[in-house]
Every structure is written in structure tokens, then in C-alpha cells.
Amino acid sequence: MTAWMYRFLIIGVAFFGIALPSPHAREDQPGLLNVHLRDYCDPVTFAAIGCVRTATPLSAGVITLPGFQAELGAEKSVGAWRFVPDRAASEDGLSIMLQNLGGETHTFTRVREFGGGFVAPLNAASGNPVPAPECARLVNGQLVPQPPSPENVFVPANTNATGPLLREGQNAKFQCCIHPWMRMTVNAKEHEEQNDGHDR
């Protein structure tokens, strides 16, 4: 290699070196998934149970408490109370970031199987009479919330939080332990493909 070619190579590496991938970089790093926790509680009629919100087009509070109760009684869920997205797939794992766009506190809780939460009337109205053990425990005949943890994240209204980290190949189910119809399923791509997209 001539001297000028050697100098050209050195200059090229120095100039483009910032774009070269690190030899320690892994292609299978967990992806980032943003999950919105949504509700549309009207802060006037929900005031007694703590609906507070900053009104934006994504979080306007237009559903009154009587409207909420009527929909829950008829449908066993309230469509405006939900996780977005409610389904995801990743074979490399996921780092989950949570953003509560609603006016109520929600939990994002990893459960073995979907069930009820720690609010008995909402469990009964939604057809989830048996609480998920990751959500609640029975103390003196009363449901008591499980304490917050990295896999039981309480997210107050208008706040962000870091959700659980899913490792490569993991499948997971998440629900709100207050509003138990708010649910999300994460499947590893390999698992999803092997089972034609159906959950276990």
C-alpha cells in the first residue's frame, strides 16, 4: 500500500469512524414500546373518585360516571378505558415506557393469567370475580392492592413511568388492577408464528 493510500485510509476511518458500529453492539437489543394508558373520565362527575386531567385532544374527559356505569353494565368493559396498543410482538425483548393520558390512576401489572383487580365492584361489573393474585390479596375479607413493584407499576394521571423489561423470547400479559378489562398481550414473534398468531 502506498503512502498516500495509507493516509487516505486513516483519514477515512477518522472521518467516518463515528458511523461505524461498535464491535460490542448487539443486533438483538430490546426494542422500545410506548404504551398509552387511556380513559376519558369527566372530572366533574368522577371527582369523588379522583379524576384529574389536563385536557388535550387525546385526553378530553367526555364520559360521565353514569355513562361509564351504564356501558360497564351492558358490555362488561368500557372501551375508552384501554391500553394502546393492546397487543405487541417482539422476539428480541421489549423495554416498555408508559404514558398515562387519562385522568385516573391505572396500573400496568404483569399477570400469569388475566383476572380481576383490587376494586371489588369493578371486578363484579366486568365479569372478573376472581382477582389476579398479582393484583390483590384478601385481608380480613377485603381486597387489598399488592404493593407497587417493577412488574406492578402504578401510573397516576398525566404522568409517565418505566414499565417492565421483557427479555428475548418472553411472552407476557398485562392488565390494570383497577379496571381489569384494560389488558395487553405481548408475544415473541417466533411463538406467534408457530401458533398462527393465537395466544397460549
Topology:
Elements: H1 3-16, E1 31-38, H2 65-75, E2 82-84, E3 87-89, E4 94-100, E5 106-111, H3 120-125, E6 136-139, E7 142-145, E8 152-155, E9 160-166, E10 172-175, E11 183-187, H4 189-194
Parallel strand pairs: 1-4, 3-11
Antiparallel strand pairs: 1-2, 4-9, 5-8, 5-10, 6-7, 10-11
Comma- or semicolon-separated keywords:
single chain, 200 residues, alpha+beta, five-stranded mixed β-sheet, four-stranded mixed β-sheet, 4 helices
Question: Mind explaining what this structure looks like?
Answer:
- This protein has 200 residues and is an alpha+beta fold.
- It is 18% helix and 28% strand.
- It is built from four helices and eleven strands; from the N terminus they run αβαββββαββββββα.
- The protein has helices at 3-16, 65-75, 120-125, 189-194; strands at 31-38, 82-84, 87-89, 94-100, 106-111, 136-139, 142-145, 152-155, 160-166, 172-175, 183-187.
- The strands form three sheets. It has a five-stranded mixed β-sheet. Strands 2-1-4-9 form a four-stranded mixed β-sheet, with no helix packed on it.
- A hairpin with a 7-residue loop joins strand 10 (172-175) and strand 11.
- Mean pLDDT is 84; it is low at 4-25 and 190-200.
Approximate shape: globular
- Give the strand tally: 11
Helix content: 10-25%
Main sheet characteristics: 5 strands, mixed
Quick synopsis:
The protein has four helices and eleven strands; from the N terminus they run H-E-H-E-E-E-E-H-E-E-E-E-E-E-H. The protein has 200 residues and is an alpha+beta fold. Strand 6 (136-139) and strand 7 (142-145) form a beta hairpin.
